[in-house]
């Protein structure tokens, strides 16, 4: 009767699927969100 060997784990600190996001200021991010919502046809609350 043979024992199953344990599989070797990857180190926790090294991620292979690391995504890089653009650096935005808060004003730029808000402008993008507002432009997207106005493109969807939503209006501002009064």
Automatic annotation (TrEMBL):
Protein name: IS256 family transposase
Source species, domain of life: Bacteria
Compositionally biased region (Basic residues): 1-12
Region (Disordered): 1-20
Species assigned in the record: Pontibacillus salicampi
């Amino acid at each position: 009767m043979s024992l199953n060997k344990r599989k070797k784990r990857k180190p926790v600190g090294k991620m292979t699927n690391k995504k890089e996001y653009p650096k935005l200021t808060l004003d730029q991010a808000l402008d993008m969100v507002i432009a997207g919502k106005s493109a969807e046809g939503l209006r501002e609350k009064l």
